[in-house]
Each structure stands twice: as structure tokens, then as C-alpha cells.
Amino acid sequence: MTSSSAPRTSDIPLQFVKGVGPVRAAALARLGVKSPHDFLHWLPRCHYDRGEVRPIARLREGEAATIWGTVRRIGEKRTRTGKHQFIAEIGDESGRIECIWWNQRFLRTVFAEGDTVIVTGKVERYGRLQMSPADFEVITSEEYEAIHAVGMVPAYRPVEGAGRKAIRRIAWTIVNEFAPLVEDSLAPNHRGLMPLPEALRAAHFPENAEQLAKARERLAYDELFALQVEIAARRRVAEQARVGRALRISDHLDNRIRLRFPFKLTRAQDRVIRDLRRELAGGRPMSRLLQGDVGSGKTLVAAYAVLAAVGNKAQAAVMAPTEILAEQHVRTFTKMLAGSRVRIAFLGGGTKSKGRLETLKQIAAGDVDLVIGTHAVIQKDVVFRELALVVIDEQQKFGVMQRAALQKKGKGPHVLVITATPIPRTLAMTLYGDLDVSVLDELPPGRKPVHTRALPPSKRAEAIRFVRTKLREGRQAYFVFPLIDESDKVAALAATKEQERLLAELAPFKVALLHGRMTGAEKDAVMAEFRAGRASVLVSTLVVEVGIDVPNATVMVVGDAERYGLAPLHQLRGRIGRGVHEGHCLVMAEPGNERIAELCATSDGFKIAEADLRLRGPGEIHGTRQSGLPEFRVADLVRDQKLLLWAREDSRRQSYDGAR
Hints:
The chain has 660 residues and is α/β, with parallel strands linked by helices. It has helices at 21-29, 36-40, 164-178, 196-204, 209-240, 251-259, 267-280, 298-311, 323-336, 353-365, 400-407, 425-431, 460-472, 495-505, 520-531, 566-573, 594-601, 605-616, 641-653; strands at 46-49, 64-78, 84-92, 95-102, 116-126, 128-139, 152-155, 287-292, 315-319, 344-347, 370-373, 387-392, 414-419, 436-440, 450-455, 476-480, 511-514, 537-540, 553-558, 583-588.
């Protein structure tokens, strides 16, 4: 711990650090580096492991090596092609070697015979061994610190107006002068983590790869801890909140709700519903994440919670990311509640203004029991009389602020968050650490398997023959493509163009088109035609990823499948095999794609999610950026699961000294 009188690294203007000045300070500020504190946390992009110094006599062709010796001779020459060579012969006690630089005339002012130098580069043979230097240093005194050409050498992002050596020298100055001043809020040897001043130094100038790994571990922990503190604070606020309306579910109400369901609940659904009954009746608002694989019956569990609210004479709201999914919920609830007195209203972006005003009046007056819609549900003019339950479907496509906006529509409403995209445990802990998690890990009986097969684009004719066979059997099919229209900028299949091809290839079967630029009414008309079987094939973009439920559709063909992540591909596959017939998913992709291989190897959504996180990284997982996942500088949710668990435990116990 340092004296409180020591200057804080965040308070010192960067321009006054040796080697910086106002011009370089301005360039660094444009990169977000405005103080020594910022620079300490502006970590190198990578490190070049330039290893130990080797005797010249032990150099071998083809290897990268570092030598330390004396300049014995310097010279210059021009090749037949007009290129300039600067040559410095370096010698040590074991031998000599020529180091050759191309087109760097300024070196004549840098080197002099007799200089002591360190050179690192690749050893090559052109008649005899030579070295092509990647970096070098001229040792000017016994106190000179070699930081450019030997050991673990940091490489930083380019800075306008400053060369890589200048930035490295600035980093060396800041690390030596300011890292020792950094106060460490962790207790000594906490979980065996490296002290923060030492970690910051080693993150820039480690002695070896092992020390760099320990530094990275400490800094990753700090990032994860800071996030978990924020999540823990949100959780404490939620736990201290009082519920606006406790929803008590008697055995009589429980039986009435279950009679509305078309089939017996699975054991997993029963287990989750027991949790819901307990929490809905409590004095604090429920905050629960429900995740499960496609077809595991999440909507039924959500319906139970909705009917519990309505059965307590309160209002419920269901928010979905797309109008197609929201309208699917309207159909599901309307069918389930046929003959009941439950009043349902729909709010979408395309709702006509006159009808919308009337719907808003009914919601505010309490004349609507269940509101289903898109983002339109959280608009300011939507006022509930007594909102007791909020259901957010496909939460990963909404942000944290959108979830909070819907919660504010009521006085401490219960919240049930649903995702049909299974989330790995580490990611769920990070994104939804303020929620309790329920998992539906069991599929309803009778759910048919989906057979997944990868085909190269050259076998398109085979895919078309297979689809035609299924259409003749009375089944229906989806074709999904990345683009709506052809593009000069992106070489990918387009739905509009592919529909034209399929009309000819699959005649006389009717081929319909669905995409995101259609109006709500146009989408409704297309989907009604497909559901009724008047169209045998639906050509679409990723808009069919969720919310489409046509049991007779048993074939899914995905064009340019390598353009999608694993989670969207798994969701697309989940659109088929929903009836009494087996599903078949044909993914058209060039051989050798690891994501496609994972998709074909398993239908387990949680294994798919883990693979997607591993292959793409958390920042690229579908929807996680807008859901509040930070872009970590150091932490990695795949690699750092142990650190995440530590951070979560420590944030809850508040064993971390000092505020972040």
C-alpha cells in the first residue's frame, strides 16, 4: 500500500511523462489514453517472445533468434534491381554474422563500428548464414535497459506520430514510475492472485510467459469482479423491492390452469412451475430466467405464470422481439384460452393509430388482462392498471434497459425472462447474474428427432430432389438464405433470387417468400398461406429463426450456412420436427467448417451453446452485445470460468476491500 500523499496515476497529465509531450499525448488521448493510469491499463496487443540471447555459432537456418554482440563492420550496397541494403556484421566471442536491412538508409546514422547491439530476427542462408532483423537496440551505457529486442517484447496499437519503439519506451517509463504507486484493493495473496502493481508491470514487460499468464489472470479477475459487483448490486435492489401484488395459486387455480394445457407437463416443467408458485406468492418480485432447448415447452411454463396473474385478477404482459413471434404468442394464448373470459390485446409497431388508442384506453382501465406485443409494449403511452407479471421472450435480443422499462410499467411486478437460445452457464452468470435460473432439460414425449446433414453447394440438385420427395408426401419445407436481395458488396445467396430459382425447380408446388422488409400485413398473409398448406415452400431470411410453428413443415434447407453462428442455425433447425413426422435439416456449406460439424454432431442446445461460445467468443454470440455484455480487455468467458466463479463469490461476500 502506498502513502496517501503519493500522486494518483489518474490525476497526472500524460503529456508531462518523459517521452510523451503534447503531440503524442493528443494522439494517445484519441485512443482513450489520457493519464498514466489509462496507459497502465492500455495493454499490449501481444508480446513477441524473443527469448534468450544465443551465441552466434549456435544459430541455425530457419530459426528466429536474438544475438548480443559488437558491430565489427558496416556497409551499404545497391542490388541489380535498385534496392538498397544496409549491412552490419555483428560478432561475439563465438563467431560473426551479417545482418541485412532493406531500404533503410537512415541506419547509417544509427550504427557505428564498435557499438554494442542486440539484434533479433530470422536466420537465413544465402551461401552463408545471414540474419534479417525484426528489431534491434544499440546499447549506449551499462545502465541501458534492453526492451525492444530481447525477452518478452510488448507490441502496442499504432499511435499517430509515434513509432513502435517510442511507444514501448514510454510504456517502460510509465510502468517503472507509476505502477508501484497503484493501490491494491485486494488483500495480500487473495486466492493466490498476483498483486496489482506487479500484475500491471508484468502485463507490459513480463519476464517470461508464465509471469504474463499470472498478470493476465489478475487483471481478468478484476474485470469480472467489477461486473459481478454491479450485478450483485442490481440483485440486492431487486431483493429489497416489495412486490406490488403477490400471486397466490391455490390447488383449485392450479388445476384450472393445467386443464387448459393440451398435454401432461414434463417433470422438468413441473419442477419449474413449483418454483414459480413459491416465488409468485412471496413478498418480493420474482426475477427468473427460464432457458431450455427448442421444443422443451418454455411457452407452456410462461402461460402458467400468465394465467396465475389473470387468475388473481391482475394484468400480465408478454414482450417478444418480432411481430411474427408476438403474433405466434397471440395465437397460442387465444387457442389455449378459448371459451374463457380472459381478454387479450396485441400491440405491435404496425398497430393502426385509431385501434391503438382504443387498446391503450382498455389497458389503462384494466379491461385487458393480457397484453402481448413487441417493443411497442414499453412505449411511454402504454399504461397498465395493475401489471403483476412481465414475461420477456427471447431476452437475449433485448437490452437490460428494455427489460427495466417494462418492469417500470408496474409496481414491483414479477419478471419471467425466457430464452430459446440456451446460454452457457458462464455467460448466463454474466448477463443474467441478477436472475435466478431455471432450466428445462427435458423434451415433451413424442417430439420427433431432426436429422441434420451437411451438403456442399455442388450438391444442390441432391437437396432439391430430397425436398421434392417430401413435398410429394404432403410435407412442407423452408429454405433460408442470408440476404433479401443480391448485393455487389456481399457474395451471398439472396432470398428473392433463390425464390425465382425454386419456383422453376419445385414446380408445380407453390413457393412463398418472407423477409424482414415486408409490412406486418404482408408477413401475416404469407404465414397464413403457409400454415394453411396453400404454399408448400417458404423461402425466407433469418426472420423465421423464432416464432414459426408449422408442424407439417419437416424440411429445412439453409443456404450459405457458414455465414451463421451455431445458435441461429440451431434455432432454424428447431422450426422443424414439431409434429408427428421426423424433421430433416440440410445445411449447404463448403466442407471443413467447424461450426457446421458441431451442428451435425449434436442436437443438444446446451452443447451447441458451449461450442458457439468457444468458437466465436462471447462478444459475437447472437445478441449479447446489446444485452449488456461488456467488451472485456483481458477476461475471456470461455477460458476464465474459474475466475468468474471466484469473482461472483467474492462480490456477494464483499470480501474485496474498497469500492471499484
